[in-house]
Amino acid sequence: MARKTKAEAEVTYHKLLDAAEQLFCAQGVARTTLAQVAQHAGVTRGALYWHFTDKKALLHGLCDRAFLPMELLLAEMDQRSGLDPLAQIREISLHILTIITQDSRQRRVFEIIYHHCEKNDEFAFFVTERESRRKCLNQLEKIFKAAVASAQLPPETDTQLAMQAHHAYLVGLMHQWLLEPKGFSLRQHAPAMIDLFLAGLRLAPPIKAKAK
């Protein structure tokens, strides 16, 4: 009986997360109430509060079962460390852009984070996301520095600016596609878009400002 109760609790937990995922995407986090989540999941409010103390806990649980964008990028860096630096940047970028077209849950989490959630410190996972972003950008800059060391980029390249430009380009593509997925095929055109960025970087890399 205990096992059945645990299994039933697990089913309810995921039903609540599924309901929250759908409602947060449809109407935003701020405009979604816990009562709506419980009703959409087909459970009582008591069942909801047994699993989640408040909306913050619900949102945190939702993001826990899917990679956050920065966590995903950090994981990809570890997987691609054997490639030459710019090839590593290319493969990481392609994976991040294509995964949101293939994994519906990941895509919905991206949508919630980028377009349907107020980014403030009330939601603890945004603190984690900022910490992950700092780690990720530091690691990205190391890859750009490796590209300079291997003569893929000139020695005067401003690697911090290159890193920031790459990050902004990647996030901008995701934002734009999530706003209007039918506007263009991200899965089809991601390689050309990343190659365009890298070609521009090779042709005209950002140059360090000369010391006065």
From TrEMBL:
<feature type="domain" description="HTH tetR-type">
    <location>
        <begin position="10"/>
        <end position="70"/>
    </location>
</feature>
<dbReference type="Pfam" id="PF00440">
    <property type="entry name" value="TetR_N"/>
</dbReference>
<dbReference type="GO" id="GO:0000976">
    <property type="term" value="F:transcription cis-regulatory region binding"/>
</dbReference>
<dbReference type="InterPro" id="IPR050109">
    <property type="entry name" value="HTH-type_TetR-like_transc_reg"/>
</dbReference>
<dbReference type="Pfam" id="PF08361">
    <property type="entry name" value="TetR_C_2"/>
</dbReference>
<keyword id="KW-0238">DNA-binding</keyword>
<dbReference type="InterPro" id="IPR001647">
    <property type="entry name" value="HTH_TetR"/>
</dbReference>
<keyword id="KW-0805">Transcription regulation</keyword>
<feature type="DNA-binding region" description="H-T-H motif">
    <location>
        <begin position="33"/>
        <end position="52"/>
    </location>
</feature>
<dbReference type="InterPro" id="IPR023772">
    <property type="entry name" value="DNA-bd_HTH_TetR-type_CS"/>
</dbReference>
<dbReference type="InterPro" id="IPR013572">
    <property type="entry name" value="Tscrpt_reg_MAATS_C"/>
</dbReference>
<dbReference type="InterPro" id="IPR036271">
    <property type="entry name" value="Tet_transcr_reg_TetR-rel_C_sf"/>
</dbReference>
<protein>
    <submittedName>
        <fullName>TetR family transcriptional regulator</fullName>
    </submittedName>
</protein>
<dbReference type="GO" id="GO:0003700">
    <property type="term" value="F:DNA-binding transcription factor activity"/>
</dbReference>
<keyword id="KW-0678">Repressor</keyword>
<dbReference type="InterPro" id="IPR009057">
    <property type="entry name" value="Homeodomain-like_sf"/>
</dbReference>
<keyword id="KW-0804">Transcription</keyword>
